[in-house]
Amino acid sequence: MTRLLESYAVGRWYAASAEGDPLLDAATGEEVARISSSGLDLGAMAHHARTVGGPAIRELTFHERALLLKELATHLTGLKDELYELSLRTGATRRDSLIDIDGGFGTVFSYSSKGRRELPNAHVVCDGDLEQLGRTGIFMGQHVYTSRPGVAVQINAFNFPVWGMLEKLAPAFIAGLPSIVKPASQTAYLTELVVRRIIESGILPEGSLQLLSGSAGDLLDHLGVQDSVAFTGSAHTAGILRQHPSVLHGGVRLQVEADSLNCSVLGPDVTSGDPEWDLFVKGVVTEMTAKAGQKCTAIRRVIVPAAVADEMTEAITAKLSTITVGDPGEESVRMGPLASLGQREEVRKAVEALRSSCDLVHGDPTATSGFVGDAERGAFMAPVLLRARAGAVEPHDVEPFGPVSTVMSYDSLEDAVTLAARGKGSLVGSVVTHDPAVARTLVLGLAPWHGRILVLDRDDAPESTGHGSPLPMLVHGGPGRAGGGEELGGVRGVLHHMQRSAIQASPDMLTAITGRWTRGSQRNLTPEHPFRHSLATLAVGDTIVSEPRVIAIEDIDHFSEFTGDTFYAHTDPEAAAQNPLFGGIVAHGYLIVSMAAGLFVDPAPGPVLANFGVDNLRFLTPVKPGDSIRVTLTVKQITPRSSADYGEVRWDALVTNADGEPVATYDVLTLVAKEA
Fold first, then answer.
1. For 14-101, where are the alpha helices, taking DSSP H only?
2. In the prediction, which pLDDT does 374 show?
3. Sign of the torsion angle spanned by Cα atoms 545, 531, 600, 592
4. CA–CA separation, 452 and 472 (whole Å)
5. CB-side neighbour CA atoms (13 Å) of 60
6. Which residue in 38, 19, 21, 5 sits closest to 191, CA to CA?
7. Coil, helix or strand for 42?
8. Could you read off the pLDDT of 235-253 as tens digits, one per residue?
9. Are 664 and 617 in contact (CB under 8 A)?
10. Which of 154, 225, 299, 666 could form a disulfide with 617 if both were Cys (CB 3.0 to 4.6 A apart)?
11. Who contacts 600 (Cβ-Cβ below 8 Å, separation ≥6)?
12. Domain named Aldehyde dehydrogenase: which ranges (predicted)?
């Protein structure tokens, strides 16, 4: 008998006692596995995640979590051959598997990198600048992000059994949330294998990842206000989830990525002799055939100028005619089968609905021959291209989740935007044009209806990742019909899982809470220069106050001549006197910063290895010849790098004049050794 897929729950692998439902090879119809969650205690899974997984993750800093993800992605990369072999049974070609498997690993690597580069090596993230809430500065406000003590339930679609799981898992893990993964049954055997290899590795803390193979049953009944559900799938199922009492009344956060009638718009400037013409044709055909069109980002609506609609239809048809469909294990095959015979039947029904207002121009959705493989057992289907008739409604309402696209024409850019908007919200749209004015008009019109827009032309094509590729650093989601959700987007995807709170307190309290020195809180005037301290002995609040230095007119003249910055406010007394802001010669702002560095730098070799930047520089009060400046330099934030023998130190620099007025403020960024 075929193996029954197992769930990983409450620290062990669980096999249901039921026979389970059969899962078939998409190309051969052979039984791959069976699936059932009968008898699984879903409430215990949620409890285990909250009480075991969550605390274990949140004990780690953001950087420590990110390093575990790097280790995990490296480990999984070494297992690719095994995963690619099993992926064939889902109907995926090698190119399709690369998108799913390598794309998933790449997303984990990306989140590991961003977690270490863009988040502190801490447990709290400060959001935005301080807000002074009182007159004297003793009452301040600071927005912060903190981890929630809940569980992230991830309900994934069948088309990306690896990437779909990992793109949700990675940001949730860095945010401090344990995950319960519920893959779509049809391809769950590939997800189960990945989870099995993750659990075997022992890299992630116990309870941080659990797998539910089979029906989700009453899982949502066990969720509460600190928990979240991220769903990818049909709008119909999303509607059912939105009506669940835990979502309606229990405070469970629901994130939805649903149906999406994505479009690609050809600019009116493009003709058949232009590079953009070929890019457009290639993009449409790629999105129709990659994963057999079973991508939530695939191009469903091909929107082209009326003047070239016939020619473009012929060009796409010619390209589609070269596509070989069949068993993905065969070398000659360019497009594999749909995920199942049932899925093929759904796509055929959608095509039939589209034909009420569209003409079939390429492909026979009911064909049973011409494939590399048995079309009775394998879910093979030829790519189908339709041409919308005037006033067609169905292409804007019906999503054929397979290798199907519809060409429609427009007469003006306004008309093109209107057609795109009739999709009622999409994950992604693309604009192919080499005319900046066309690009601006279309993007501004399309943006309210799309989560992401690709503008493609000859210039960016060599590095473009294509219309249908969600990237970990860019948001993935869309308004309206597309679900209204938003995933990925770099650190945005992490913060989405966290709670933002406004903290009102004194500067000292904010420093204690955030771990970052707050202007106005206590400083520790150290007898030894802070640059003599390694990370082992340096502390937030350590401060040095420099001796004053007079800025002479000779300094200003020399700086002007040496740098070539001869702006009149520094070199022409008569013109400078007429300036309403200065009323006479003033020192260059960068002269002030340069001299400030000379006042606070300790020149001898020591733990400070390098200065790698200045942030938030502001010039506040002009400095005139004869005035003096001094610098107060305070350790603002310490971020050890887990993978190096040094860390980052952010220093608060305050430059004042002889009257104590602030002349300049900025952050100095240095790399400092962990040990002296």
1. 42-48, 54-58, 62-77, 80-87, 94-97
2. 87
3. negative
4. 12
5. 24
6. 5
7. helix
8. 889 889 999 999 989 999 9
9. yes
10. 666
11. 544, 546, 631, 633, 653
12. 22-441
- Of 75, 78, 105, nearest to 472 (Cα)? 105
Rounded mean pLDDT of 97-110? Answer: 95
DSSP reduced 3-state for 363: coil
Quote the CA–CA distance of 188 and 77 in Å, as a whole number. 20
Distance CA 351, CA 367 (A): 13
> Cα–Cα distance between 590 and 619 in angstroms, integer?
9
**If you count DSSP H runs as helices and E runs as strands, how many of each does the chain have, helices first?**
21, 28
In percent, how much of the chain has pLDDT > 70?
Answer: 100
Residue 127's Cβ-count burial label (10 Å; 0-12, 13-18, 19+) is: middle
Nearest to 92 by CA among 374, 291, 343: 291
Read off the DSSP letter of residue 208: S
195 in Cβ contact with 8 (< 8 Å): yes
Q: Please state, in angstroms and rounded to a whole number, the distance separating the CA atoms of residues 253 and 133.
A: 31
- Could you tell me the two tokens for 313? 């239809």
How many CB atoms lie under 10 A from the CB of residue 463? 6
Distance of alpha carbon 516 from alpha carbon 615, whole angstroms:
15
Query: 312 and 265 in contact (C-beta within 8 Å)?
Result: no
More confident residue, 206 or 612: 206
Q: What SS3 class is residue 216?
A: coil
Position 1 scores a pLDDT of 56
Q: Is residue 2 pLDDT above 90, yes or no? A: no
Phi then psi dihedrals of residue 652, to 5 deg: -85, 120
Q: Could you tell me the pLDDT band of residue 369, with boundaries at 50, 70 and 90?
A: confident
**Mean pLDDT over all residues of the chain?**
93
- Choose among 310, 313, 307: nearest CA to 280: 313
Tokens for 257?
A: 């990525």
d(CA 480, CA 458): 32
pLDDT digits (tens, 9 = 90+) for 518-528: 988 999 888 88
With a CB cutoff of 8 Å and minimum separation 6, the contacts of 142 are 126, 130, 131, 502, 503, 505, 510, 514, 518
pLDDT, residue 64, reads 94
Q: Kind and range of the H or E element at 542? A: strand 542-545
Who's near 50: CB < 8 A, 6+ residues apart?
Answer: 149, 150, 151, 178
Do the Cβ atoms of 431 and 440 come closer than 8 Å?
no
Identity at 547, one-letter amino acid code? E
At 392, list the tokens: 């067609």
List the catalytic residues.
Answer: 257, 296
How far is 239 from 227, CA to CA, in rounded Å?
Answer: 19
**Separation CA 530–CA 521 (nearest Å):** 18
Q: What are phi and psi of 191, to 5 degrees?
A: -60, -40
d(C-alpha 383, C-alpha 386), whole Å: 10
Q: What pLDDT sits at residue 419?
A: 95
Strands, E, within 64-218: which ranges? Answer: 125-132, 140-146, 152-155, 179-182, 209-211
pLDDT band at 189 (very low <50, low <70, confident <90, very high): very high
* Per-residue pLDDT at 415 exceeds 90: yes
Residue from 309, 317, 327 nearest 288 by CA: 317
Cα–Cα–Cα angle for 489, 494, 499, rounded to 5 degrees: 125
